[in-house]
Amino acid sequence: MMNTLTISCLILPFISGFIIFLLPRLDRYLSVITAICSGLYSLFVLVTRTQINLKLIDTFGVTLSVDEQSGYFMLTNALITLAVICYCWSTDKSAFFYGQLMILHASINACFVSTDFINLYVALEVSGIAAALLIAYPRSDRSIWIALRYLFVSNVCMLLYLIGAVLAYKSALTFSFSSINTAPPEALALIFMGLLTKGGLFLSGLWLPLTHAESEVAVSALLSGIVVKAGLFPLLRCGLLLEQINPVIRFFGVGTAVFGVCYAIFAQDTKRLLAFSTISQLGFILSAPQVGGFYALTHGLVKSCLFILAGALPSRSFGELARQPISHQLWSAILLAGFSISGFPLLSGFGAKVLTMKNLLPWQNWVMNLVAVGTAIAFAKFVFLPHHSVPQKLPLGFWVAVGILLGGLLVANVAYLEAYNLENMLKAIAIVFAGWSIYYLIFSQFSLNLPRKLESFEHLMGMMILVAIVLFWVAVNDYGF
Amino acid sequence: MLEFLVLTTVFCGFLGILWQNNLINKVIAMDAMSSGVVAYFVLMAARRGVFVPIANDTSTRAYADPVPQAIILTAIVIGFSIQALMLVCVMKLAKDHPTLECTEIESAQK
Hints:
The complex is a heterodimer.
Chain A: H1 2-22, H2 27-48, E1 52-55, E2 63-66, H3 68-88, H4 95-113, H5 117-135, H6 141-172, H7 185-198, H8 208-214, H9 217-241, H10 246-266, H11 270-287, H12 292-311, H13 318-321, E3 326-327, H14 328-342, H15 349-358, H16 362-383, E4 387-388, H17 396-411, H18 422-443, H19 457-476
Parallel strand pairs in A: 3-4
Antiparallel strand pairs in A: 1-2
Chain B: H1 2-19, H2 23-45, H3 66-96, H4 102-108
Helix pairs in contact in B: 1-2, 2-3
């Protein structure tokens, strides 16, 4: 019974995607229903703590596995898709947009249940194609170039990943995740490089800021909220399956978090700040793999919410925004989201941060506390935006989307209520106020433009190989593997 | 030897993506790279033998491994569709950037 339910929930978005192409009039209704269905399914998995292992056909068949972690990721996917549909409801998006949205939703869910490298490859490639089509939806030169660049990066890293997968197969005669146990170092390097690049992590994730910042608001929210997590989830799963990989994953998590937050502090553009903060938050998820699911849920919700809110601001540059006050309502929503991402007690960003901090190793602890202060510094730019009481007219769909995401954050508190004790709350408040004061005293006084040279096409390709070489070196010298 | 040649193909394809400035050339270089990967899978499948695996009573022949072969079919289809999508993107870009030079397009979008 449970197996049939799982398979039908995984297939449903694909089917509704294809039906939308055949019956374009049903687009929004079908996609809302589908998103609600997958949301209910993932809630069911989370509440009942079900663990399902599916094996289709025989030994070489596809294996799927649903557990608590995948439940969190699927819930994130469902809520963000629902919010994006509400946000786009009153716009004139065509059925093509909703169809691709459904296929993206389905392929990302498939990533969250797959347990072998080939299944994962197919799901990642489908999500890459659907995401590229959504990025190119406005059909402007700029969007087409961004989509092409995204396709290039994701396809090249997936080709190298395939070589890694077949090398792992050679030694273990299976494509399942457990084959990395016996895989040679070059296979590990290629597979992890592919996943790190696809997930926008570490230096190989430098494609992410431009892609996420230049896409349309709804698409940025999707990309930052959930699409990058498709590359991140298999890393978490491998880190949990194999003890030897765990320290390496943690190390890359810390590296990613530091790298992202350094760029985010100096960003002068709202959407670039959010994109760099995505990189640093992904690092948080990786740095404590066993509790990554909850952090991924809170980060996905808050980041999509912030992208949608930033889309309503009159300008993208913080310099301009300092001269144009925004309405109180918009500012309060931004403040709430900023509280959650900085880990202020109220929304579930706080619980997620406490839980992650508790599961860090001692050497990670002080670095991640510094990164938390850095996040507060970066988001102080949003908090200190001038605001006035003149209301700004915003469509209903916008507020429904923001309501779903912020409401989701509030309700998600129930997953870890133990976080609310005096010590944790004082620590979180201290971190946030330290960040804001440092911003007010130091960073608001000057602005620094970090060079964008590394984000050019050739450097993205080169960076992938450099990361692969570093990984190879780590694997050969047996540091943790 | 064969393995070396196949991996050289992949490497040359990658260098093409890096060094060619023209977008069409880049897409073709990526195609070369993916052909190399496909060839590598076929080579890996033929490690123990090259015969078609069909179950019969006298199963003593050196059979090829059918799993990588079956899997790479999927990758070929995916690679082909991505290739097609990229070429459409390049076609659209060619209207405003007739030289299709990557550096020129990149600086125009800044």
